[in-house]
């Protein structure tokens, strides 16, 4: 059995850090993760540099990442302008994103859900066949403004997304880390049974349920997961906010379950330590602090 892991710390992990992380440091992290065996990575985001200054150097980071053997580079894109930049820069996989809930979409993207959907639908149509697509659906399970998302409402929207393109990968994202494992399992199982094995799971560890949710999604048949080395993320000015489920914790769990990850444990720990030591980053995860897990490296 094999799992596909996509590393998101260079984007989701670094983005909330207040001070600008030097481009060289970002590139060094991407290289360390690749050296650990990572073959899929979200390296940045083509968004307005005024809105998110931390991602202003995504082009340079992408250029460096594209030099690495066998690495599939994803860049996040929320709109047509980002799409045009992604076409020009030549990303391997387009990372479209919007929120399943109106409240979060408005707060995060300053557009209604229907405006985002129409824009992204036209981008999906205009994406050349040579470019893969990942459609990220934020707040599929829980929204900071609207609370727990009813499963019927989530499936209704996923139905519309999946009809855009039969080959496109769709990530059900637990943006707030507040999903329950039973909820993740039900929704993932239902989505896969209706629309096939094209779903990925992206989760945060805010309430300590990150690994439980990954395990639940795996049991439900999901085989593609996002995670972030060092579990970095959150915001120093927002107490309690945390990053993605730590990649090294997910890898430890999958190895323990006899699932192949393709990663070198020793090098992954080194890369996770590197991510955790980025100034301003708030690290998460458990296994980096377990002596026996370190000794296994
Ligand atoms: Zn996220």
Summarize the structure in words.
- Helices cover 41% and strands 16% of the residues.
- The chain is built from twelve helices and ten strands.
- The radius of gyration is 18 Å and the shape is globular.
- It has helices spanning 9-13, 23-35, 58-66, 80-89, 102-109, 113-126, 151-162, 181-195, 210-219, 247-256, 265-276, 291-295, and strands at residues 4-7, 40-45, 72-77, 93-99, 132-138, 142-143, 147-148, 169-174, 199-203, 224-227.
- Helix 7 runs parallel beside helix 8 (181-195) and helix 10 runs antiparallel to helix 11.
- It is an alpha/beta fold and 297 residues long.
- It has a single domain, classed as Aldolase class I (TIM Barrel).
- It has an eight-stranded parallel sheet. The protein has a two-stranded antiparallel ribbon with strand order 6-7.
- The two termini are 22 Å apart.
- The structure holds zinc ion.
Features:
single chain; 297 residues; alpha/beta; TIM Barrel; eight-stranded parallel β-sheet; two-stranded antiparallel sheet; 10 strands; globular; binds zinc ion
Query: In terms of per-residue confidence, which ranges show pLDDT below 50 for 5 or more consecutive residues?
Result: none
Ends: how far apart? 22 Å
Number of domains: 1
Question: Strand order, biggest sheet?
Answer: 1-10-9-8-5-4-3-2
Instruction: Work out the radius of gyration.
Output: 18 Å
Number of separate helices: 12
Strand percent estimate = 15-25%
Catalogue the ligands. zinc ion
Full CATH superfamily name: Aldolase class I
What's the CATH C level? Alpha Beta
Number of strands: 10
Q: Can you write the helix and strand succession as a string?
A: EHHEHEHEHHEEEHEHEHEHHH
Output the structural class.
alpha/beta
Q: Sketch the major β-sheet.
A: 8 strands, parallel
Enter the CATH topology name: TIM Barrel
Helical percentage: 40-55%
Average pLDDT for all residues: 95
CATH architecture: Alpha-Beta Barrel
Q: What is the global morphology?
A: globular
